[in-house]
Amino acid sequence: MLGAIAGEIIGSYYEFHKIKTKEFELFHPESKFTDDTTLSMAIAKSILDDEPYLDNVVDFGLRYFEVGYGGSFKKWLKGNKHLPYNSWGNGSAMRVSPIAWAFESEEKVLEEARKSAEITHNHPEGIKGAEATALAIFMARKGATKEAIRERITTQFGYDLNRIVDAIRPDYKFEVSCAKSVPESIICFLDSDSFEDCVRNCISLGGDADTMGAIAGGIAEAYYGVPKEIESKINGYLSDEFIEILERFRATYFVTK
Fold it and tell me: Could you give the dihedral angle defined by the CA atoms of residues 55, 59, 60 and 65, in that order, rounded to the nearest 10 degrees?
């Protein structure tokens, strides 16, 4: 989960200041946590305290209301019934990383990823994005090779992962759909040589930088670990509540990478 948080914070400034290069200031003075971290914390708390995903997503969403949610999600938060609204957006994938660390079988990871998505993103593409991201993280933390991850995600979810970042970058534009941002985020990991390189790949596409950083950063953490110099900066961006959840989650699930 730390990798997703780091990827999001690094990407937060560049979501609205798009670039097409890997040469940029990693932590910009205007970097901050946004909706990706907020809802990942909600999922983590649900796991830690055995509470429904829906309850904490609504609670955290309302208490941290101005952190950059999309219009449809804001409308959903303000509603009374909180029924799923058939979203195919990448919000389901950005918040799923805790699930891949907390559960110990592929079947359970996929089941919980689906459950966490369906509270809002019950469109097949929204569910698929969450499942693919969670499975990639789970495989990486269990020691799978990049080629094994590429083959499995391609076969199971139908994403085209046989591309490279340099080929995607020139024509890539801002995308919030799972179908057009989750595969690219996974490629940013597959086409990297370190955690930082993975995040730089994401930002350099000029797309939904914070969410793509969260998706790819979650996978990269499981594969590479998060560099100490990046880890040391994260708490400075988080609320006390988020620091407590993150520390408790990492201690409970022995997240040591």
Answer: 130
> Tens digit of pLDDT for each residue in 24-72?
999 999 999 999 999 999 999 999 999 999 999 999 999 999 998 989 9
Q: Which of 80, 154, 136, 91 is nearest to 118 (CA)?
A: 91
Buried b or exposed e, range 175-207, using 16+ CB within 10 angstroms: bbbbbbbbbbbbbbbbbbeebbbbbbbbbbbbb
Q: Which two tokens stand for residue 13?
A: 């400034």
Which band of pLDDT confidence, cut at 50, 70 and 90, is reported for residue 255? low
Whole-Å CA distances, 202 to 11, 14, 121, 216: 8, 10, 23, 7
Quick count: other Cβ atoms within 10 Å of Cβ 240?
Answer: 8
Contact indicator for 45, 56 with CB cutoff of 8 Å? yes
